[in-house]
Structure prediction request, 241 residues.
Amino acid sequence: MSLQNHRAVIVGGTSGIGLATAKLFLSQGTQVIVASRSQERVDAAVKEIGTAQGYALDFQNESQMQQFFETIGDFDHLVVTAAGDATSHGLFGTLGIDVARAEFDSKFWGQYATVKAALPFIRESGSITLTSGAFAARPVKGASTVVALNSALEGLVRALAMDLAPIRVNAVSPGVVDTPVFSGMDAESRVVMFQKAAQTLLLQHVAKPEEIAEAYVYLAKNTYTTGSVLQVEGGAILSGI
Ligand SMILES: NC(=O)c1ccc[n+]([C@@H]2O[C@H](COP(=O)([O-])OP(=O)(O)OC[C@H]3O[C@@H](n4cnc5c(N)ncnc54)[C@H](OP(=O)(O)O)[C@@H]3O)[C@@H](O)[C@H]2O)c1
Prediction:
């Protein structure tokens, strides 16, 4: 399928994987709308991308999401890459349940609320692509919340593929990607962390956001894929280190 003159909405499209995905959709001749919470980030992304439209909103807020989709009207492809920072690292039982709930409230319920609000406006020939993460398929110690919420998202994607057909519903599951989500770390620790991560991967490097963006464009284009999780993780699952 050509994406020329299609309309794509990318919630979380102002940074990292979402921003790279917005640029790649634009290169296909698609009209792109990006959204995230911070007006500053939205303005910066629109300036950087050039021809996209941008909106400030919180994907956890159902009424804001309804208003947003009513404003923009019918479109073809929904991509959701938004998520708050993961703060729940620690062996099970060492963190308060409120920390785990907050992370579900953002990444799981935010994606859920976005799809629910978007649904009346997505064309039947269109697609929905959500974002999980490689920990769902390859858990590591101390990441029970992230493992559980990405697994829940992948289950949701399979269920939505059943309920919403012929709209196609899939997920991209990234491995470690060099994005601003790690900007809270000092530069030196980030380099060390990426080097360590790279050594555990078959492909020996941490992903650039552009390497993940291709998966979202593929899932929007391919008319015969639904209910699937596309792993883009440099061989993390097979390497098993
Ligand atoms: N980077 C990795 O290594 C990695 C690995 C596995 C999975 N992932 C997943 O990939 C996705 C994208 O991650 P990324 O690394 O590209 O992150 P990022 O660079 O931090 O981008 C996250 C985006 O989400 C937006 N956002 C956050 N909370 C929001 C909210 N409540 N409402 C609306 N927008 C919100 C942010 O903008 P505002 O601040 O303006 O809201 C930003 O545009 C996430 O689901 C993440 O869990 C990433």
